[in-house]
Amino acid sequence: MTATDLGLPRIGGLDLVPTTDEPQKAKEYKSDQEVRWCPGCGDYVVLNTIQSFLPTLGLKRENIVFISGIGCSSRFPYYMNTYGMHSIHGRAPAIATGLATTRPDLSVWVVTGDGDALSIGGNHLIHSLRRNVNLKILLFNNRIYGLTKGQYSPTSDQGMVTKSTPMGSVDTPFNPVSLALGAEASFVGRALDSDKKGLTEVLTAAAQHRGSALVEIYQNCPIFNDGAFDVLKDSDEAQRRLIPLRAGEPIRFGPEGEYGVGRGGWGGLEVGKVSEIGEENVVVHDPTIADTAYAFALSRLGDQSLNHTPTGIFRQVSRPTYDDQARAQVEQAAQAKTPDLQALLRGKDTWTVA
């Protein structure tokens, strides 16, 4: 029996129990634990944003779960007055998959960092995305290992000097959005820690999405990689660099909207002046395109220099979820005629192992 069978509402496709009639407040989502991050850490802003937007979902706090791995961001469950679990390094998506599959009444969130998710947890992340498990994965990207004191991470700049790369990193960094799209994630978004409005919009859409949703959050580490995203937070620079993605609208940016995104060579996209591209050739954003090629092309507009940085929702498509299909198989097996266990044990299908 599901909440739908009982006539109860569904949020993001989940079978959920409604809240009480009294509206919830952000303070109800704050635990009694002292928040302990370094002064100036972007995690504070993200935490405040999430605690502020969760009441708008209309869910009971006991129907929300935050699961984290290892890292500064992974302290998140302690600070949320919901259920939660501080798990092991890189394995949060695997644990969350089990929970989402067995408990369709829960809204399951994964909080992870660029090191936790993309290094030791890389395989767990991509498989949860390709399976389209009903999870909301928040990837805090500060381009450094913070908790373990400043080693380079899978998103650190090439040539970056850290405690583990004293002569500069020779690794090619991941683009988390491109990686998620390559894994066929059905929802992919990006936001800045300092942009509460934009972050709230992406998180709300992710919460309402049925399936795997990955949101990359550019987050500042003031101790080991301070100012990594400052160019996107300066009002003048932001207008020239940030490319807001709004469904149904032409992709334009710049102080006067003078720049736009148009079709490029080899099926890609490119940035140019609208006066040169032509107004009619500016791409109208559509995150619901089934083929990942379009969203992937958007993700490739920018690089580590942040010269062009799309933010918002890259992809938002509907496809069957792993947990729905797994539960359907269990139900189908339960309804089928149960075979006699003793008959199976005493059957003729036997093997002799030498």
Automatic annotation (TrEMBL):
- Is Membrane tagged as a keyword? no
Give an example GO molecular function: oxidoreductase activity, acting on the aldehyde or oxo group of donors, iron-sulfur protein as acceptor
Say if the entry is tagged with keyword Oxidoreductase.
Answer: yes
Q: Which domain of life is it from?
A: Bacteria
In this entry, which stretches build a coiled coil? none
Query: Single Gene Ontology BP term?
Result: cellular respiration
Which keywords fit this entry according to its UniProt record? Oxidoreductase
Spell out the Pfam families in the cross-references. Answer: TPP_enzyme_C
Q: Which PANTHER family match?
A: 2-OXOGLUTARATE OXIDOREDUCTASE SUBUNIT KORB, 2-OXOGLUTARATE OXIDOREDUCTASE SUBUNIT KORB-RELATED
What is the protein's given name? 2-oxoacid:ferredoxin oxidoreductase subunit beta
Could you tell me which species this protein originates from?
Answer: Prauserella muralis
